[in-house]
Write a structure and sequence with these properties.
The protein is α+β, with helices and mostly antiparallel strands. 47% of the residues lie in helices and 21% in strands. The protein contains 2 helices and 4 strands. Strands 1, 2, 3 and 4 form a 4-stranded antiparallel β-sheet that branches. A hairpin with a 5-residue loop joins strand 3 and strand 4. The longest helix has 21 residues.
Length: 86
């Protein structure tokens, strides 16, 4: 029973801690995929510069087309400097 309680505690801790390590999502909107990606990357780059971390660039293939015909895209900035591959 103690082992099961430890396993449950570990899973709960992992679920609570995951968002802190995952990074922050930054969204951009625009009339084209490229402009929406550029907006998302600008936001991610600013957040990364403010924290002294890095960011993952936007991928135009993962942008979503909205009902009004515009696009929304996403870039992610790291929460911790150790998350950056250098």
């Amino acid at each position: 029973m103690k082992r099961q309680a430890k396993n449950v505690s570990f899973v709960l801790l992992a679920l609570v801690a995951m968002p802190a390590f995952a990074g922050k999502h930054h969204y951009g909107n625009g009339p084209t995929r490229e402009s929406a990606c550029a907006a998302a990357e600008r936001r991610a780059a600013k957040a990364a510069a403010d924290k002294g971390t890095c960011y993952d660039s936007c991928n135009v293939n993962t942008c979503k087309k909205l009902d009004d015909g515009t696009f929304t895209c996403e870039a992610i900035s790291s929460n911790h400097p150790g998350s950056c591959r250098r």
